[in-house]
Design a protein that fits this description.
- By secondary structure, this protein is mostly helical.
- It is 70% helix and 1% strand.
- The protein has 19 helices and two strands.
- A two-stranded antiparallel ribbon has the order 1-2.
- It is globular.
- The N terminus is likely disordered.
Amino acid sequence: MEGAQGTASVLSGRTGIGAAAVLVAVTAAVVAFEAYALAAVPFALAVVFWALYHVESLLLAAVALTPLSVTLKESDFNVGLSLPGEVLLAGLTFFALIRFLHQGRLPWPILKQPLTWVILLQLSWMAVTVLFSEMPLVSFKALLSRVWFLVPMYFMLGTALEKPWARNLIFPLYSFSLAVAALWTLYVHSQYGFSKETSTWVMYPFYKEHTLYGMALAFVYPWSIWALFRPQSLVARFIHLGLWALLTVALVFSYTRAAWLSLVAAGAVYVIFAWRISARQIAGIAVLVLATLWVTQDQWIRIFTKNDTVSSDNFSEHIQSASNISTDASNLERLNRWASAFRMWQERPHTGWGLGTYQFQYAPFQHSSQLTVISTNAGDLGNAHSEYIGPLAEQGWPGLVLVLLLLVLLFRTGSRAYRRMEPGTDRTLVLLAMLGQVTYWVHGVLNNFLDLDKGAVLVWMSAAVIAWADRAAARD
């Protein structure tokens, strides 16, 4: 009760009068000098107060704001940040630094976990590669953005998840905000007849293009299914039915083949947990599948090279085009990017070309025989399109090894926590976090989004859930 009174008193008495005076002064300055950037000052002050009095809810607000944040282009405010979400994440990181300097306390339970060790080792290696980067300033900015994604969404949120209400809100907040972006996207898309050609950009300004949008939809889709079928009131079930239907329609009209494939993989992982298939059985199945693929490799190569179905509005043809490596421009361009990345790695195998530099450095490594109608030398059409090959080119072989090690520990930690926890909502939350990770890392074969807040928030917040579950299971 005292805490509630203390919080309420923040905007009362002299403090309230002072806050009102500052608001009036700022508003007057904005109008008088046409300094519209000053209009952000009251909001910044409000966020500071929010962080001081209830940082846990501010972290969840950052999660909710991420799907609706926009990157302003061709304007005076184009600083390469997603607003307001990424700015809020950067502010939370600065707040964590100030709090540490003031209190000298670190989240030791989180820091003692092997999963955290790998994350910190990965971050440390990125810092080392900045020293050898072809473009040090670009690499330093990329490293800084990774820090302000990790600190709030993994370390700070990992502590906040100790509270049940925070755990219960983390997926709904992102999902319902994403639903708002999906409604906007479907409305704009409907103006163009839901065509495949326009599906690549109709989600702007919330998502820069359809693969990023499809990734986010696929990540939260398993949660939307669980939310629909869990025990709840009729009104709540109706709301979750609407959410699931909206995400389904949005996913279909995103025309993102990688997202569709990632959900198939997530379904397979769910079967493994639901049927309690052992690691030995999984290894046996994997060996059998690999052996079959090896024996039939000639037939598969013929299928891939003879498939000339290109992506189109026809969903059947669009799915078939996923294996077309002879005429589909999107698939061929990925092969071009990957080949360029491998050549970059061969030239600098140990430290790579520097974090975030691929798109600016790969042009000379393209071969004329592999160029497509959408190839470019300008460095303005994205990166290596792989969460595995990209680090290889930018950070050398240690970069790829650390990505693979992160994957192993993510799923090993999550599986261990799932086995130890009692059946219930928290146990299901761990499984949903892992299924979301499956969709991301399968999608990551063909695209990479960890340098963007839309992808980083999902990956690191679900990693925080997995790390929390492992700590909770160890305490029980």
